[in-house]
Amino acid sequence: MSYFVRNVQLPQDYDSIANLLNTILSEVTNSEELAAEDAKIPTTGSLYLNADGQLSGFDRHRIVAVNAQGKAAGYGISWRAPWTAAGELNQTLAVDPAYRGHGIGSMLYEQLEAWAVQNGASRLNIEVRDDDEHSIRFAERWGYQVERHTFESVLDLNLFDTSRLSWMDREVHIVPLSELDAAVWEEKLYELYKETSYDIPGFSGDFFNFDDWKKWTLQLPGSKPEHMLLACDGDQLMGMAHLLYYESTNSMYHEYTGVKKEYRCKGIGKTLKLRTIELAIQQGISYMRTHNDSLNRPMLKINRDELGFKAVPGNYKMIKDL
């Protein structure tokens, strides 16, 4: 059966895109979430070369591979946000496993890379599951190489040893954002995210401005103020932990943990982690997920050796210089 590539047509393509993305995502998405994400992004992008000749600005190119009957078998997107590192574009490619091996991925990728070259990108980034040999080989054939490895871990809360909650330092004052003055504490959260993000191995590019940070952090699907836990020292923010709730699987994703430098090495990060587990158990959550960069050994040790998270397939970040 022959396929051809066309630009996405919205909203009618949302269901097909969600189905294709769900073949590569850890948690399912749906057309409503995709539409809500699009509503946060300006409809018209603007790419340009900065004073150093590096690609800057923001835009995206989205395409699908469909047959004569309109059935979508593959989806691709090339994009950069204003905070993406200069010169770089990010790529995502998803092909229905039932239609792999028929050249659909190559058809899509050729157009994505042509768009990147046309706009002057110097580096392309793509994420591939570390247990997906087919996709790894595909990326390697197109000239990508592994830059870093992100591990994924899962905690089955039905099997969690609740005696570990006694390790929590109850002297640390932890309060959900829902019980605080959001106008005041959101600014403090933003500064903490900004400070601690630069400590994450592999972080590159600029940080969000405040409004974009709210859209892509506090307003993520599954984010609620009661699931944003703040460790406070009076009116000072020491650290925080942020959970996302997935109703379809009754699970939570540990989106972020951060502790300000002057409060580190005092057990605050571990206490925040334990408090999120306690909250999830209280709410009857089935399991929690999290990711750690392979170079973030201290947090990986806490999650797996001390809290009992178990390893599951993670992701390779693969890069290609143009």
From TrEMBL:
Q: Which Pfam families match?
A: Acetyltransf_1 (PF00583)
Q: Where does the source fall among the domains of life?
A: Bacteria
Sequence ranges assigned to domain N-acetyltransferase in this UniProt record:
3-166, 172-322
Q: Which UniProt keywords apply?
A: Transferase
Protein name per its UniProtKB record: Acetyltransferase (GNAT) family protein
Q: Which InterPro entries match?
A: Acyl_CoA_acyltransferase, GNAT_dom
Task: Look up keyword Transferase and say if it applies.
Answer: yes
- Supply the source organism for this entry: Paenibacillus aquistagni
* GO terms assigned for molecular function: acyltransferase activity, transferring groups other than amino-acyl groups
